[in-house]
Specification:
eight-stranded mixed beta sheet, 43% helix, Rossmann fold, single chain, alpha/beta, globular
Length: 267
Amino acid sequence: MTLKSKLVLGFLTAITCGNVIAQSLPESQYFDSNGISIHYVEQGAGEAVILMHGYTRSVNDWSQLEIFKSLAQDYRVIAFDARGHGKSDKPSEISAYGLEMSRDIIRLLDHLDIDRAHIIASSMGGRVLGPLMPTHADRLLTVTFIGFAPVWNWSADVQQSIERRSNNMIRNPPQRLIDQGQDIQALGILVLGFSQLVVTKQELRNLKVPTFAIVGSEDRNLARLEELKTLMPDMKLLVIDGEGHGLDNLARHLEFVTSIRSFIADH
């Protein structure tokens, strides 16, 4: 049986037997990241693959998807809760976010004695990862962005939008976040640190890290990723037709799994 056939069979099996994945979630682990407890899970052996989730999400976004199980067959797969999320600590100071979120990635690698890793960053994860690409390229084997990209422009209008987003989260949070028991205050404060997570266009042009991006054709961030490709012409871009923003939407497509596996294997 060819590798492609195995991937297809595994993907179809996961769809029909999703409960198997849910029942085999890896054990929770924690490490100290400059005084903040960061939660992570890992499975498999081989080159390291770090999975980063989006805003208001958690490691469960990854650990219950076929891509986690598929990659763990050949790689050491680690998913972690960003500070302010999931089972990680949720500090209430703005200074605890911003670049501290980016540094958590390097501290995780150091904690696990990993020299270099493949990084797959969904949504907010791409924003957090951005500042590390020019400063810690030597720690990155590859980078894959899901539905977002590093931020290279920050204006007064963007700052005002972020402040409104913070206020709206604290004063009128979505009911689902309340039902989930999420720390609304931390989520509101966290976004105020986004102004630190900005890179320059020239820094992106200078990058040599192999980069891949996946986005839905209906995702408003498509234009940002298309512009990123003009800055990084060697970046591979996959547009999944008919899908909007969200890891769950994209990950249900077989090409999501096969393309990521192929990209990582090539590097």
